[in-house]
Amino acid sequence: MTESREPRVFIISGPSASGKSTLVKKLLQLPGMLFSVSYTTRPPRPDDNTVMDWYNFVTPEEFQRMVAADEFLEYALVFGQHWYGSPRRWLEEAQRRGFDLVLEIDVQGAAQVKRRLPAATSVFILPPSRQELERRFRMRGTECDEEVARRLDRARQEMQRFVEYDYVVINDDVERAGREVQAIALAVRCARNENEAQVRRILESFGG
């Protein structure tokens, strides 16, 4: 990879508790991947940033300052409560380092990024069933019955938008699903249009 090329951008979306964060970690095991740390106005949870930095926590006022300064690739109000956004500086950092960029964002943010960066590769993570998703919510023990119902309804709405994505991965087995997201990234990296300049240089070494 060279520093002059535009970074490949991989968008990972899916309903809450679909396991997308775990699959993002699998994707980041590939060399040359950079994670886009999001900004959010929600308060930190006890398990936040225990393994890696997923969020920068800011006040609503600071977030709106960043919006006004056009510092985000995308941003959205989630559950009508808190703002989330992906700063464009990570795209610039990926280009500087010759890396590819991984964004874990919701369907609203994914649509914004695809409008700005049509070449971005989007992957939607699905749970195997409603029953399994509900089980995962209840296993967390952080949501009341009303909140679980609200999250399940939102998951249904988000999953209906899977047709907007380039790839779909069903997370019924995390090891297999992890291999699939890695395979998607590797396939994109091997695409003809991604490597045409290098191929032409190789051909030139043969005299044409």
Describe what is shown at a glance:
This protein has helices spanning 20-27, 60-68, 89-97, 107-116, 130-140, 145-159, 174-189, 192-205; strands at 9-13, 33-35, 38-40, 55-57, 72-78, 82-87, 100-104, 121-126, 167-170. It has 208 residues and is an alpha/beta fold. The chain is globular.
Give the SSE map.
Blueprint: E1 9-13, H1 20-27, E2 33-35, E3 38-40, E4 55-57, H2 60-68, E5 72-78, E6 82-87, H3 89-97, E7 100-104, H4 107-116, E8 121-126, H5 130-140, H6 145-159, E9 167-170, H7 174-189, H8 192-205
Parallel strand pairs: 1-7, 1-8, 2-7, 3-4, 8-9
Antiparallel strand pairs: 3-6, 5-6
Q: Write down the overall geometry.
A: globular
Pattern of helices and strands: EHEEEHEEHEHEHHEHH
In helices, the fraction of residues equals 40-55%
Radius of gyration: 18 Å
Q: What strand line-up does the widest sheet have?
A: 2-7-1-8-9
H/I helix tally: 8
Q: Profile the largest sheet.
A: 5 strands, parallel
N→C terminal distance: 23 Å
**Unreliable spans:** none
- What fold name goes in the CATH topology slot? Rossmann fold
Structural class: alpha/beta
Q: Give the total of beta strands.
A: 9
Strand content: 15-25%
Average of pLDDT: 91
CATH C-level name: Alpha Beta
The domain count comes to 1
Could you give me the name of the CATH homologous superfamily?
A: P-loop containing nucleotide triphosphate hydrolases
Any guess at the CATH architecture?
A: 3-Layer(aba) Sandwich
